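Protocol step 6 of 9: fold each sequence in the batch and record its structure tokens directly after the sequence line. For illustration, a two-sequence batch is reproduced in full.

Sequence one:
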Amino acid sequence: MAIQDTSRPEAPSTTGPRSVSRRDILKGMAVVAGAAALPTILVACSSTPTTAPGGGGGGGAVTGTVTVGSNHSDPGELKGMQAINAAFMAANPGSKVVMNTVDHGTFQNQISAYLQGTPEDDFTWFSGYRMRFFASKGLATPIDDVWAKVKSNYTAGFATSVTGDDGKVYGIPVDYYPWCVFYRKSLFAAKGYTIPKTWDDLKALCTKMQSDGLIPIAFGDKDGWPAMGTFDILNLRLNGYQFHVDLMTGKQKWTDPKVTTVFQKWAEIMPFHDTTYAGLTWQKAADTLVQQKSGMYFLGLFMTSEFQATENPADLADVDFFPWPTLGTQYDSEAALDAPIDIWMVTSKSATLQADMDTAKAYMDFWSKGSTQLLMFQNQPGLIPAASDTDTSTYSDLQKKAASIVGAAQKITQFLDRDSRPDFAGADGMQGFLQKFLANPTQDTTGLQKQIQDFWDALPPATV
């Protein structure tokens, strides 16, 4: 089963033109990432620079070779990787890092064959279902010994994200980014709009924006994945974290009346969305917010890159965001949201792994430090460092706010296509089903929900 991150589509080319993905636009986002005191995901961060960590996690320097498979192919991320590898070798004289960089889309499309063939020792990947899947198939090496040394640099929320079905740890969290509702401060001030706190507030604000000639909610679903974010947040607010994650993994049924409620709630606000959504990429939808043609936009933190692209500092300084409003259920207190977490893992079939296992694990240890993650952040600031000892002294108010919103969340999800099977979440699955709903949001969704459940039930056993 080829693993595809449908939320970050890219063409399989590192040299020729390709479509712009969520990963692409993260580079250069110097004002939208950071870390602050987070009760769930992060613990209190240092405000002073940390010293570059040693590679041995307290066990002394290593002198072997570690091979790494990386999807950090964009220019900023590649520079970050080069800086990190150089720092690792400087901290471990005599060691060597050999890196194989593959563009993001190809890396994900070929990950299954890669891990079963002759992979590098360590590799980039995602937490949640995507990590647990390969761990359960014996294609990843548990790193509980490394985690025992570094876990104090993470909270229970991060620990859960890298724990496999067998209770063992398989990854080191390195960055994340939240999904929120974005808006322009100047537009809200000029129109006298206030931040909606509840569902009724949101609908009232949308009605007012519509009467003012604005598109209340920017939306672009040409690529299929953006709509997943809205389903996620509505399901989380209406039915809670546990039902949501169980639904993603087949423990709950798509025919459940709780899912019906999600679609019914969604239908209430669809008239406030951009009616041309089916032909718009997320970038084009974000541009309507930049141009003050729309009032709000629910998407990942990366969308602020469209404000940065204007090269007018005033545009970027004008963007702000707030968490999705409450829906008056018992699950409002969870303040749950999507905040995908990227990780590093150790393979199990590398030809060189056993000879240099200490070096492979030392590299994982090295990535667990805020000083290491900052080397990536300095070149790719759109990725919020995950380590709690990250230096926050250079972060803007917007960066700290992004981290604070994630910190207020009692429950964190990874996004529909990461929390579920890739063959279920793709264009033939949930992407297509959600687009059927969007085309007629007031429909009786009983038949659609049955189609979704039948599709799930027809999937083959989850094998690689």
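Sequence two, same batch, same settings:
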Amino acid sequence: MKIIILEDETRAANHLERLLAKVAPNMVVLARIESVRDGIKYLQNNPEPELIFSDIQLADGLSFEIYKQVTVRCPIIFTTAYDHYAIEAFQTNGIDYLLKPIEEERLRQAIEKAKHFSPGLALEKILSIGKAGSEKAYKSRFMVKVGDKIRSVPVEEILVFYSQEKASFIRTTDAHTYCIDYALDQLEPMLDPERYFRINRKYIVSIDACTNILAWTNSRLRLKIDEIDDPDIIVARERVVEFKSWLDR
């Protein structure tokens, strides 16, 4: 099977090729492409591959732009560190959605899907997603840097998102703090409102963090969270009623 890889991170592309050599040694990589511009150029000027492995966030934009400008009939397996592009991915010829770091068994399953790909099945998948379109997909994990390594932190382990000195951080249930690449205004729509609540401009808290709540001045509420010594973990007065309703669901 002839394939191309759309990936702007050399390490991630190398990792994928190593896994492919193990699970599908008959695959031939025709090209590794790092940008939307080069992806469009390649697909317009070369025979279409039999399968595309496509990262979503490339060096110059989202890979979806490629498939808006070039008609692609072969299946696409999307590879990404983010889980909130899934519906858009299946609106192309996307047949699977692998979260980084890619695991060998998940890659094997995705390749099996590709072998049985047909446009009719892809359309059926899109229609089934459309029926459930009212269900918004929220982020389920965040990638953080720990020294020279990358760790994936599930949202279930995150007690608090907070901003400090123009940077954003998470605090986990195992008392670790990590910097993340999102402002709190960006984070709000990514998080499940059943689980997270923005109490003020500096803090978004999880339901699990709300175990020690004190009455505070001016009809406000203060949260005491283990290992966080900050007097600003206070529910803004205009948010108190909504916050109490959120807790009482």
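Proceed to step 7 once all outputs are recorded. Observation for sequence two: The chain has two domains: 2-131, 146-247.
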